[in-house]
């Protein structure tokens, strides 16, 4: 397949960013209100656009690595920052949505448990019926645990994407730092901050998963 020109790649990146921004606005409204079942389609669309934008950025990186000017490098860095911001916000919103859904499911389980207790006290239900309701509640809890595992895997995917993005930028940073020694200190501070952000995200994901597992085991 014939390689695209820089202008064509940049035009494609802007188009994907606009489409992502539109879908992210819809997703933000969905998360801030009450999910209506359309979140799966939105999430699939956003993930598809993120992958396409990542591919375009990689093609732009090929242009820069083959001897592009500093202006091209600066443009690519901006597009990568947009991709990183959109990716981080998407995973944050999706985690928030999953937490709301799990909270609602836990409330439903609690109400089912209360109703089962009242039925047993009033003699309206049999022991077998109460056991069946408890089994249904356990099945839902198992589904929630699967959701937590999927969420942890999604967070890991975001961290891998960030590492790939930082790796592509590191070569260009080295060239810039060689030409402009006076900015070495600033670049080192940026790298330390980005490394700290990655560590914090990993710790938060690990702690959340650990707490949910403790909650699950303590039931």
UniProtKB/TrEMBL annotation:
GO terms for cellular component: cis-Golgi network; Golgi medial cisterna; Golgi membrane; SNARE complex. GO terms for molecular function: SNAP receptor activity. Its main location: Golgi. It holds the Pfam family V-SNARE_C. It comes from the Eukaryota. It is a single-pass type IV membrane protein. Residues 6-33 form a coiled coil. The chain crosses the membrane at residues 198-217. It is found in: Golgi apparatus membrane. GO terms for biological process: endoplasmic reticulum to Golgi vesicle-mediated transport; inter-Golgi cisterna vesicle-mediated transport; protein transport; vesicle fusion. Component of several multiprotein Golgi SNARE complexes. Belongs to the GOSR1 family. Involved in transport from the ER to the Golgi apparatus as well as in intra-Golgi transport. It belongs to a super-family of proteins called t-SNAREs or soluble NSF (N-ethylmaleimide-sensitive factor) attachment protein receptor. This is Golgi SNAP receptor complex member 1. It comes from Elaeis guineensis var. tenera.
